[in-house]
Input
Amino acid sequence: MSNLSAPSSRRSRQQPDPHVVRTVRQVALAGLALVLVWPAARGYSQWIGWLPLWLVGMPLVAWWALYRFRLPAAWRGGNGAGKRRRGPQARRARRPLRPRWGQAA
Output
């Protein structure tokens, strides 16, 4: 049977195909070299738009997508600054009720 029937937790642990990763990495690095070396590659094309987006940005996003958009370990917040607080939600202090209009005598 194919991998399509595997549970999602099992599929998420699989590594991408090394041949595809190598190809996407080479395309991203070639696009980066092209943008850095050739000034015309930093411009705008009438047909496809801003060239650095297509030469560098999109291959880098494809490379990242091969790893299912996981963040690098250094960016995951290992210092605990982004952790949620446990416990009840904070409540506002109650103010004493007071009448809106002055009482008639």
Notes: The radius of gyration is 27 Å.
